[in-house]
Amino acid sequence: MGTTVVPSSMKVSIPQGDQKDDGFIGGPNPKDLDAGALFVLKSRGSWWHCGYHLTTSIVAPVLLSLPFAMSLLGWAGGTVCLALGAVVTFYSYNLLSLVLEWQAHLGQRQLRFRDMARDILGPAWGKYFVGPLQFAICYGAVVACTLLGGQSLKFIYLLYKPDGKMQLYQFISMFGGLTLFLAQVPSFHSLRHINLVSLVLCLAYSACALGGSIDVGNSVSAPPKDYSLVGSRVDRLFGVFNGISIIATTYGSGIIPEIQATLAPPVKGKMFKGLCVCYSVVVTTYFSVGISGYWAFGNQSKGTILTNFMGETKPLLPTWFLLMTNIFCLLQISAVTVVRIRICYLPI
């Protein structure tokens, strides 16, 4: 009978045949494990579930800023950076998953980045550097997503009531209450249905951004298309770094160890299939939104394509279309925020 090894800091192996649902029959007391290990240790997911989790961890409404990034890099630079980002991160994520598979085969299963740092660099690095660093990054992402969710709610409110008196903090509080409710899921595996909906939603608002860009770009009220890089030489140089950082941020948020820990044994090959599902969505959404938005607005592309759709004096698209797009974004932001909230517990 095979064995499944829980975090190496516990120095305990649990017979696979003695695992049942969320508990351990004849194994160690779950109270002896930390909260992060318990959260990811429910290893019953398939490679499809892995694809859902990966897509939600990487693809977020920040992709709507890709036309702006391309306006800082130009056609050649923007397209090359998008392609390089996809190739480099896919290779890196797959290589990391293979290392985790090999370590599990050797009997030292690593469930989190903290566990990897502990085994590679030593216990102090995992506990006092990588763990707090991951917590800080996820905490910042939760704050940013909550603010963005509140802004989306307020935008929807103002579409229906332009003279409304409600303040932004009220919408932030409402969005926070929603994510607090969704965050009560007992394990990462329990997020699979939410993350499937998230995958569909990111395809939906990306399709809206693509359709909106094509419609505006072909309309009589289309802004003049100028694809030159604007500003002084120094401004263009800093713009290149800004554009590269935006593209790198959109790609570089995968949480491989924690997601791979949710897979049911045998794990071999499942993570690669999950990455293929994820990157089919990534390539479809990133390239379609980035290229179509830059084609429609050129160097006038703003921080998010939705801002361009609002126009200078009046919306360039119907109100119902803008409302639908923002609802898709709002719902997907809630899924991304829940994933980040739950990841915040893992380094503890």
UniProtKB/TrEMBL annotation:
Pfam families: Aa_trans (PF01490). GO terms for cellular component: membrane. The keyword Transport applies. Keywords: Amino-acid transport, Membrane, Transmembrane, Transmembrane helix, Transport. Coiled coil: none annotated. Residues 44-338 form the Amino acid transporter transmembrane domain. Residues 1-26 are annotated as: Disordered. The chain crosses the membrane at residues 82-104, 125-149, 169-189, 196-217, 237-256, 277-297, 317-339. InterPro entries: AA_transpt_TM. GO terms for biological process: amino acid transport. This is Amino acid transporter transmembrane domain-containing protein.
